[in-house]
Design goal:
The complex is a heterodimer of chains A (292) and B (412).
Chain A: H1 3-34, H2 41-58, H3 63-86, H4 94-116, E1 132-134, E2 137-139, H5 141-163, H6 165-175, H7 177-182, H8 187-213, H9 221-225, H10 227-233, H11 238-259, H12 264-278
Antiparallel strand pairs in A: 1-2
Helix pairs in contact in A: 1-5, 1-8, 1-11, 2-3, 2-4, 2-8, 3-8, 5-6, 5-8, 6-8, 10-11, 10-12, 11-12
Chain B: H1 2-29, E1 35-41, H2 48-67, E2 76-82, H3 87-100, E3 105-108, H4 111-116, H5 118-124, E4 128-131, H6 154-167, E5 177-182, H7 185-188, H8 191-201, E6 205-211, H9 219-228, E7 232-236, H10 243-252, E8 258-261, H11 269-274, E9 282-285, H12 297-309, H13 318-339, H14 346-354, E10 378-385, E11 390-393, H15 401-404, E12 405-407
Parallel strand pairs in B: 1-2, 1-3, 3-4, 5-6, 5-7, 7-8, 8-9
Antiparallel strand pairs in B: 9-10, 10-11, 10-12
Helix pairs in contact in B: 2-12, 2-13, 6-8, 9-10, 13-14
Classes of the chains: A mainly alpha (292), B alpha/beta (412).
């Protein structure tokens, strides 16, 4: 066995897994606080990546100015979607809310096609192009630096949720909405903030993934493939999103390298099936017990 | 503000005059039954980037041929529906359009649709079909007697590429090659034939890589190619991504691999989006590029019509050329059938198509072409000159244009 090759493949997989973890975080934060599965997360990612393209490409801003602007734009979009389209659905069945998010996804695809057209796009290059070597192992620079930027945001998020007032309010709401409300927490604001933070994580991941693999109006489909990560990790577990993101990224890449590209998805779905049988609530998800 | 309103008003007035002229034109010049070009066109969905240009090519050709007096005096009407590149919608569009019109020729937007509709097309016997697909399967005359390919099949394109690669060997050594293709019906189409052809020519296929189409991370696949070190990588089943990532990452590793692609992987989009990184990329293309130095009466007419219909559009992609060429072949087939005093049935039109020999396309394809197995099995290798921002035909010394076109009779 070529261990150097295995090491390189594993590194590439883990780095990609880091970006999966970031997208999963977008799902999990929103679900944890609001119990809404946001099927438009991929399209929010896509929209942020197109914003980056507009700022860095069309307006020729520095990519390092365009990146935070695009990410902010994506997070504001998430906040607006929550306020205008999700909040009026409060109290409705979860299927209805999910259908609204699917509708939002469709609207965003149409909007992007109207504004930027249907052509595939490449983002202006902004990550260093010098190959990265860890020991003798090669790692593609875009993946390596993308992973570092993503990991930076993950650390900021973890610290925010652990120590800030907003983070505590979010965790309290996720734990028990009624109790949080009775303790004076503005639950509606927390709902909105969760969409803003979830969309922010997804937007950053969107720009980084698009910088690696290109962009098109169908880019949002990646959000659905990351749903596997979220289910494996547990829909309401941030730790689950991180661990499952890294694991699925690694597994997908190793399966692709040793079995062939057509086995990437079957490998991840096989893991999903096994996890659903053993732990239907995911590796780290909350096991809810309903008593009649 | 006032100027803007005035300008919009002038534009509207212009559009109004054009509409009035169009409405009056058939009554003035052509009182014969119109011939309908039907089409299931992907103006939205994953293939929309090409669909809009195919549609523009078909629309502009229709305007041009009507300006030339139509087909034997019959005006041409182009009737289409958007399909979103979904087979069920394409079928619904076909039924709707053929249900309300007599449609001798029809544009299909995908291999999937063309295979699905084949049995109905065969039982109707009224319509000849071509479209966006260059799938090898469609060259099977038994199964698809009323469908043709407006160029070489994907397998024939691989054959042309492999012939070029074979010619680059030195001292009896043949270069090595890797095939990189998408995990789709489109991507897998020519691979088995490509491998067989390579084996026949003594070219070793050192690696075969399958990826999802579009936005994917390919760093693991690049690591495999780094070990296989192919002299050539042939892409198929992609439009842009992940071709760019393979090229950039492999060059970052210091590999001097040459990259090549088939029809849909050889649009100018690669140059526009990749810039200097696209330099040296090579593609196989049956048609001359819109901005190439080549010329000819039909190519000039195409350029003039494109300029007339949308002066701001500038360069027209290969999808536009493909749409135009499809309509050109339909016209030729209908004309030959009418000239032979035959009805416009699928059988008669297929016979007219098969009779096309050494046909001068007026510069759309650089050499006279003949139909073989319901396809036009010719193509040419083009190379990106990133500095000039365009593809240039591959040439060696004083080689004539004719010999630079791979003509692959029987290479299915």
């Amino acid at each position: 066995m070529d261990w150097l090759f295995f090491g390189e493949i594993s590194l590439a997989g883990l780095a990609m897994g880091g970006l999966y973890a970031l997208i999963s975080l977008g799902f999990v934060i929103i679900y944890k606080a609001t119990k809404v599965i946001n099927f438009a997360i991929g399209e929010i990612m896509m929209f942020a990546a197109y914003l980056f393209l507009a700022f860095a490409g069309g307006m020729e801003m520095s990519p390092w100015v365009a990146l935070p602007l695009a990410v902010l734009g994506g997070s504001v979009l998430g906040g607006v979607i929550e306020k205008v389209m999700i909040r009026p659905m409060l109290g409705e069945s979860s299927i209805s809310v999910v259908m609204v998010t699917i509708g939002v996804a469709s609207i965003l695809v149409g909007l992007v096609e109207l504004i930027w057209g249907a052509d595939p796009q490449l983002l202006p290059s902004f990550l260093p192009r010098k190959p990265v070597f860890i020991g003798e192992m090669y790692l593609a620079p875009k993946i390596a630096y993308g992973f570092l930027i993503g990991a930076g945001l993950l650390i900021v998020y973890l610290l925010y949720f652990r120590f800030s007032r907003g983070g505590v309010a979010l965790r309290a709401t996720a734990s028990d909405q009624a109790a949080a409300y009775s303790m004076g927490i503005n639950v509606r604001r927390v709902f909105n903030l969760s969409w803003v933070f979830g969309s922010l994580a997804a937007s950053l991941a969107g720009v980084l993934v698009a910088a690696t693999g290109g962009l098109s109006p169908q880019f949002g489909a990646i959000g659905l493939s990351v749903l596997v990560v979220v289910i494996v990790g547990g829909l309401d577990s941030i730790l689950g999103a991180l661990v499952a993101g890294l694991f699925i990224g690694w597994l997908e890449t190793v399966a692709g390298a040793y079995l062939g590209g057509e086995y990437r998805m079957p490998a991840t779905f096989a893991v999903l099936a096994v996890i659903l049988v053993i732990r239907p609530y995911g590796l780290f998800g909350t096991h809810e017990i309903e008593r009649v | 503000m006032f100027e803007s309103i005035l300008s919009k008003g002038r534009r509207l007035a212009g559009i109004g005059s054009i509409a009035a002229a169009l409405a009056a034109a058939p009554a003035m010049a052509q009182d014969k039954e119109p011939i309908v070009f039907g089409g299931s066109i992907p103006l939205s969905g994953v293939f929309a980037f090409a669909g809009v240009h195919l549609h523009a090519g078909l629309t502009d050709y229709t305007s041009w041929i009507n300006g030339e007096g139509g087909i034997n005096g019959h005006p041409v009407k182009y009737v289409m529906e958007d399909t979103g590149y979904e087979v069920d919608r394409s079928v619904a569009a076909f039924k709707k359009i053929t249900g309300s019109n007599t449609v001798p020729v029809y544009y299909g937007d995908s291999t999937g649709f063309m295979k699905t509709i084949a049995s109905e097309l065969n039982s109707r016997g009224t319509t000849l079909m071509s479209g966006a697909s260059f799938a090898t399967a469609l060259t099977d005359n038994e199964k698809y007697p009323y469908q043709f390919i407006p160029g070489p099949s994907y397998s024939q394109m691989f054959g042309i590429i492999l012939e070029y690669i074979s010619s680059q060997g030195e001292g009896g050594d043949k270069p090595t090659v890797a095939f990189v293709y998408s995990d789709t019906e489109f991507g897998k189409d020519p691979i088995e034939n490509g491998k067989a052809k390579a084996a026949l020519m003594g070219i070793e296929v050192v690696e075969e890589i399958v990826t999802k189409p579009g936005s994917v991370d390919v760093s693991a696949e690049v690591l495999k190619l780094r070990r296989a070190r192919p002299d050539y990588v042939v892409f198929h089943g992609y439009v842009l991504s992940p071709i760019n990532e393979f090229m950039v990452q492999m060059r970052q590793m210091g590999l001097d691999t040459q990259f090549m692609g088939t029809f849909w992987s050889s649009d100018k989009l690669i140059i526009n989006k990749m810039g200097a990184d696209s330099d040296g990329y090579m593609g196989v293309m049956p048609y001359n590029y819109y901005d190439s130095a080549e010329g000819g009466p039909m190519l000039d007419a195409l350029r003039a019509q494109a300029e007339k219909s949308d002066p701001d559009a500038g360069y027209r992609p290969t999808g536009y050329m493909q749409g135009w060429f499809n309509a050109m072949v339909w016209t030729e087939v209908i004309k030959r059938t009418m000239d032979a005093d035959k009805e416009l049935t699928a059988d008669n039109m297929a016979e007219s198509l098969a009779s096309i020999k050494d046909w001068d396309t007026g510069g759309i394809i650089g050499i006279p072409v003949s139909v073989q197995d319901m396809s036009f099995p010719v193509g040419r290798i083009w190379r990106v000159n990133a500095k000039e921002g365009r593809y240039e035909p591959y040439r060696t010394g004083s080689t004539s244009t004719e010999t630079l076109y791979g003509s692959l009779a029987g290479n299915r």
